Amino acid sequence: MLFVSILFASCSGSDEKETQDEAAADESILNTPFTREVSHDTCLFIAHTVKEYDVWKAAFDLAQPVREKHGIEALNVYRELNDTSLALVYTNVNSLKEARDYITSDNLQKSMENAGVMGAMDLYWMVNRLNYKPEVTDSILMFMSFKVMSYERWESAFLQDYVDEPNRDFQVKRVLQGIENEGQVAMIFAVNDHDYVQKMEKNAAFRAKMLSAGVVSYPVTYKLVNMPI
User: Fold this and answer.
1) How far apart are CA 117 and CA 179, in angstroms?
2) Domain encompassing residue 75
3) How does the average pLDDT of the chain come out, rounded?
4) pLDDT at site 6
5) pLDDT of residue 90
6) Closest C-alpha to 46, from 150, 119, 136, 137
7) Based on the domain organization, do 55 and 114 belong to the same domain?
8) Which of 94, 126, 158 is the last residue of a domain?
9) pLDDT (tens digit, 9 = 90+) per residue, 187-214?
10) pTM for the full model?
11) Is 139 in the same domain as 193?
12) Cα–chain-centroid distance for residue 63?
């Protein structure tokens, strides 16, 4: 009976700690427009240059059964607003190992060459961390990736900034963290100003916030134009 009591107390203590940890995580998003509930967890964002978009898209469509067999589900296809030779794909990944094996396979590389892909693909293996709860109404959709000293430090500063200044001139639809590099952050966000990123990079107060949050690289940015999938 004593053993059972000790075991029960030990389990209860463990459950209480898990509950406390979950509560602490939930508190970090209080008074912000974000939730940690995500429709898909692991994802891959791909950017590559193609000779002819229509030729590439036809090959991409034909490869759908093969992708899905390897645990990759295409969610969105985009073209870059300022460089239409850039084709971008946002995918859900059900099996990280199978997806990686497929993406790095010689067969895919050959297929990509035949589809007119030029040069290497930029691959962003990510985990969804935050989702924006309100409807996104801004008109220009963008993808941005940059590196930070610590994801936790950056996210804490990012969320606190929303608490301090809830009115924004941009809407962050999704926040993601790198899998291979946990200090990589990506955001899919919307704005109404085509020059928003350039203006922010010249804003001294904004740069100071980024440095304080531990940002250590200039961002890679794409302006996304939704295409039929």
Assistant:
1) 25
2) 42-126
3) 90
4) 38
5) 98
6) 119
7) yes
8) 126
9) 999 999 999 999 998 999 999 999 999 9
10) 0.86
11) yes
12) 23
